[in-house]
């Protein structure tokens, strides 16, 4: 047995042979599929393997430990269970198995000994034999492997150093080498070139795709323009943009120079009631404007039929990319901790520390702004233009959230994938810079897209029955972002993707200007492997896992026929929007104004634009748009939960899903952020796995108390059912689905359906006991906890939940919620506290 300095010396002799073994095995295993029981990709070779290893399972995997063999290849760290199914040589290759992690997704490696832990780097030396190996991943996972006492110490130390040396990114070119390892073989290139794209989703990379979207939305007054076909007008926009029929391409070319990066106002989506959603960057005032330029810009800005335009400024109320990056870093540190330094947050400070990360605050800000825009679009007879300085971050966020709130098609899997293609991929979100795979540009790094996925999860969390896609799909998409193998995330705009896929160069001539030229014989370059899109889920997950991406939902009724291009028949909306034709308003910080520099080319003396309005105590002095937004924000809540088919007919599927934004209503994406927290905070050997985590123990005790309260309440109902008093039933409040109780305490896990249903009909009585004490013995660790998917039907107690709130019921899908008034000051929430 090797120990101490002898072990370090022996390992140092083993490491130089890693590359030699990799080169020697690559020729042998290039066409092999089964290596020591591991299903390898074409060209993938095994660097090191260790037998008699146990992997710790997460709560989603069933908890406990599973025995098997640990492998390290030059692409991934793989674990093959001992009793797992044998690999099928005839099946298509899958990049990662259920227990695998890509080397590019590993953030750090920690070795755990009897009384010490150490962060392992390529240059570090171990003076002890690890008993556990912990892999911290960039996607918030923590993978823990326990070595058996019979495992040779040499294998343990060698695989530890092999993983630490292989995963470490040494230079920016390491991502390209990682792609070559996974996809650069001849077999994989041929396999990927023969794969067909999913025809059920819209890719928005051709004019016909955009025309299909216009037809789906009923935007008959708009057309697809190919004015930016060669990316000459704007390098960050897509080849095709949607503009009004009245604007010609020759006139449109003059408008690009007036906006930052040439990102002119362009169509994104049309509400069934006739309102249009546009996006644009900031206007450049230092360029001379001709009269025709002004007319063309106004034709685009006002849309095709509306006489009112509302410009929504996104830069003041929403977080900056730097703020998002800082909040996400704090969230990672809180949820994962760091066992190598033994730094952790005390349990009594955990919730306040979560609030101080401001991650939930930023989610709340984005959802609030999207709710405001959704309410404006629902009113009809206007055009809403989202304005951002660069139009590549928060504009993608808000426009996508608005469509998820208002369009049922965007809440299906294929509709949501098409939405991301349209508003993020083709719109030029800087995925490559924001994700920062190379770790060479920290100033541009910011998980804006991950913040968007969390916002969508909040909507799914409050309206689960209105979504066809599930949280499993959102979690899979979240994890795919950290795998640098997909063309979706490895470019900043469509132009960069086209250049990489076709290897386009540029040449200049005095007549034609800059033109893209295809390099000869570029497709045979082995250093440039083909990159599949992230939507090819069969490359990442099994069919069983893909089946969990969706759930059945009722079919969406077809749209009603358009009445002169508008479905809005609400006379109140017509009365409130009583502005002069041609009016432009700015919505910023919940206030509508008409400043002199909006539009920037207009002067203060223009007579057809309204002057700025001041807020007045009465509604008569408030501008019409503010009164409209107030009317939706202050709408009276129904006194009872409405059914899907009420007295006014079926529920309108295009009513916006306006979420509740108060502190207790915002949940933490537990399945994503806390799936590795128990590994990081409570490392234990198999003999101690029956002892649950303190947080789980607390939740189980609370659950036992609630079950006893439910039993006492049901027994009281049985005794009094013979002669019930005549009492007029009070209508249930709309916030009964929050599971609130009189002590306003917060629980980490949902309540059971039985307890909540009983408490909804009868006030709960305290349990009776002979010794006036309640048993606090936690149940067995094998007892399954309630999952967030088990929704309650609501109750009159006031318990609220932080993680996976089961209280947000299915009935919420049949009712409308409206945000608080935009000018009202909400009480500051210091975050919920754990029950005492």
Automatic annotation (TrEMBL):
UniProt biased composition (Polar residues): 736-749, 769-780, 792-809
Gene: MTMR11
CDD domains tied to this protein: PTP-MTMR11 (cd14595)
Region of interest (Disordered), ranges: 707-836
PANTHER family: MYOTUBULARIN-RELATED, MYOTUBULARIN-RELATED PROTEIN 11
Bias (Low complexity) ranges: 713-722, 750-763
Family indicated by similarity: Belongs to the protein-tyrosine phosphatase family. Non-receptor class myotubularin subfamily.
Top-level taxon in the UniProt lineage: Eukaryota
Pfam families tied to this protein: 3-PAP, Myotub-related
Gene3D superfamilies reported in the protein's UniProt record: Pleckstrin-homology domain (PH domain)/Phosphotyrosine-binding domain (PTB) (2.30.29.30)
Record-linked SUPFAM superfamilies: (Phosphotyrosine protein) phosphatases II, PH domain-like
Domain Myotubularin phosphatase: 204-673
GO biological process per UniProt: phosphatidylinositol dephosphorylation
InterPro entries listed in its UniProt record: MTMR12-like_C, Myotubularin, Myotubularin-like_Pase_dom, PH-like_dom_sf, Prot-tyrosine_phosphatase-like
GO cellular component: cytoplasm; membrane
Protein name per the record: Myotubularin related protein 11
């Amino acid at each position: 047995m090797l120990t101490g300095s002898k072990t370090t010396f022996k390992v140092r002799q083993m490491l130089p042979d890693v590359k030699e073994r990799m080169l020697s095995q690559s020729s042998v295993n290039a066409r092999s599929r089964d290596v020591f029981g591991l299903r390898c990709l074409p060209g993938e070779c095994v660097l090191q393997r260790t037998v008699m290893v146990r992997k710790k399972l997460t709560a989603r995997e069933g908890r406990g430990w599973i025995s098997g063999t640990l492998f390290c290849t030059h692409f991934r760290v793989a674990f093959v269970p001992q009793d797992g199914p044998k690999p099928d040589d005839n099946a298509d290759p899958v990049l990662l198995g259920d227990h695998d992690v890509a080397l590019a997704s590993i953030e750090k490696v920690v070795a755990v000994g009897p009384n010490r832990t150490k962060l392992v780097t390529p240059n570090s030396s171990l003076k002890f034999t690890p008993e556990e190996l912990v892999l911290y991943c960039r996607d918030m996972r923590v993978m823990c492997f326990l070595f058996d006492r019979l495992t040779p110490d040499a294998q343990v130390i060698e695989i530890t150093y092999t993983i630490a040396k292989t995963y470490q990114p040494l230079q920016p070119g390491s991502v390209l080498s990682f792609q070559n390892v996974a996809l650069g073989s001849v077999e994989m290139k041929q396999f990927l070139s023969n794969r067909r794209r999913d025809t059920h989703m819209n890719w928005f990379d051709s004019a016909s795709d955009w025309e299909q979207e216009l037809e789906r939305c009923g935007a008959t007054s708009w057309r697809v323009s190919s004015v930016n076909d060669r990316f000459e007008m704007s390098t960050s926009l897509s080849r095709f943009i949607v503009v009004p029929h009245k604007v010609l391409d020759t006139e449109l070319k003059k408008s690009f120079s007036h906006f930052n990066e040439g990102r002119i106002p362009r169509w994104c989506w049309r509400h069934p009631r006739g309102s249009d959603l546009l996006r644009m960057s900031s206007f450049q005032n230092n360029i001379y404007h001709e009269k025709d330029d002004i007319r063309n810009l106004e034709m685009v800005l006002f849309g095709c039929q509306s006489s009112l335009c509302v410009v929504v400024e996104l830069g003041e109320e929403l977080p900056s990319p730097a703020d998002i990056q800082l909040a996400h870093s704090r969230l990672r540190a809180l949820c994962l901790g760091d066992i190598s330094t033994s730094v952790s947050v005390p349990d009594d400070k955990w919730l306040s520390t979560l609030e101080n990360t401001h991650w939930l605050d930023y989610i709340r800000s984005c959802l609030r702004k999207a709710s405001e825009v959704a309410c404006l679009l629902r009113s009809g007879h206007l055009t809403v233009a989202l304005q951002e300085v660069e139009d590549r971050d928060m504009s993608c966020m808000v426009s996508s959230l608005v469509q998820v709130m208002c369009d049922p098609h965007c809440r299906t899997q294929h509709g949501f994938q098409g939405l991301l293609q349209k508003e993020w991929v083709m719109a030029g979100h800087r995925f490559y810079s924001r994700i920062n795979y190379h770790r060479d540009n920290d100033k541009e790094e910011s998980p804006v897209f991950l913040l968007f996925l969390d916002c969508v999860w909040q909507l799914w969390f409050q309206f689960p029955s209105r979504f066809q896609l599930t949280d499993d799909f959102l979690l899979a998409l979240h994890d795919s972002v950290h795998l640098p193998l997909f063309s979706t995330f490895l470019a900043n705009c469509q132009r960069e993707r086209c250049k990489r896929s076709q290897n386009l160069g540029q040449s200049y001539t005095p007549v034609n200007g800059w033109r893209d030229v295809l390099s000869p014989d570029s497709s045979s370059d082995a250093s440039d492997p083909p990159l599949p899109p992230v939507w090819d889920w069969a490359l990442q997950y099994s069919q069983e896992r893909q089946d969990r991406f969706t759930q059945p939902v009722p079919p969406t009724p077809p749209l009603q026929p358009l009445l002169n291009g508008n479905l809005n028949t609400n006379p109140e909306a017509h009365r409130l929007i009583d502005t002069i034709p041609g009016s432009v308003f700015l919505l910023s910080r919940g206030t509508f104004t008409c400043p002199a520099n909006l539009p920037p080319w207009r002067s203060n003396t223009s007579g057809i634009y309204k002057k700025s309005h001041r807020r007045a105590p009465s509604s008569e002095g408030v501008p019409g748009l503010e009164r409209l937004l107030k009317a939706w924000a202050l709408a009276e809540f129904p006194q009872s939960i409405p059914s899907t088919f009420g007295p006014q007919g079926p529920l309108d599927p295009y009513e916006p899903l306006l979420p509740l934004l108060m502190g207790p209503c915002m949940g933490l994406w537990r399945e994503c952020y806390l799936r590795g927290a128990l590994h990081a905070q409570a490392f234990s050997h198999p003999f101690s796995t029956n002892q649950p985590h303190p947080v789980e123990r607390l939740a189980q005790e609370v659950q036992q108390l609630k079950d006893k309260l439910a039993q006492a309440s049901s027994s009281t109902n049985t005794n009094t059912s013979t002669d019930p008093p005549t009492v007029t039933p009070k209508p249930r409040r709309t916030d009964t689905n929050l599971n609130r109780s009189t002590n306003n305490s917060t629980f980490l896990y949902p309540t059971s359906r039985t307890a909540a249903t009983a408490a909804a009909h009868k006030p709960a009585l305290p349990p009776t006991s002979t010794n006036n004490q309640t048993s606090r013995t936690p149940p067995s660790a094998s007892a399954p906890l309630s999952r967030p998917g088990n929704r309650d039907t609501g109750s009159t107690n006031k318990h609220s939940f932080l993680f996976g709130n089961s209280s947000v019921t299915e009935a919420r899908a049949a009712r409308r919620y409206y945000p608080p008034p935009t000018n009202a000051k909400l009480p500051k929430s210091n975050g919920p506290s754990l029950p005492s």
